[in-house]
Design brief:
The structure is a single chain. By secondary structure, this protein is mostly helical. The protein has one domain. Helices cover 30% and strands 0% of the residues. It is built from two helices and no strands. The longest helix is centred in the middle third of the chain and has 16 residues. It is globular, with a radius of gyration of 11 Å. It starts with a helix and ends in a 30-residue tail after the last helix. The relative contact order is 0.21.
Length: 71
């Protein structure tokens, strides 16, 4: 997650007070950060595997005011 947030992911959305902060779990925050990183870097050849910590899905994980970006 540190790599994703340090490499252009919009991690502010999953920070305290952000619309994706709850649930306050590492899995939920990493899910948002990994998606943000992937969406911003896939055109430049970025990967989405994160050493086996991530996977591609077909269902939109957005909930309430937390909107996952799809570009």
């Amino acid at each position: 997650m540190d790599y994703a947030c340090g490499s252009g992911a919009d991690c502010g959305m999953a920070a305290p007070g952000g619309p994706c902060y709850l649930p306050d779990t590492l899995m939920a925050h990493a899910s948002f950060a990994f998606n943000s990183y992937w969406q911003r870097n896939k055109a430049a050849g970025g990967t989405c595997d994160f050493a086996g910590s991530a996977m591609l899905i077909t269902k939109d994980p957005s909930y309430d005011e937390c909107r996952y970006v799809y570009m």
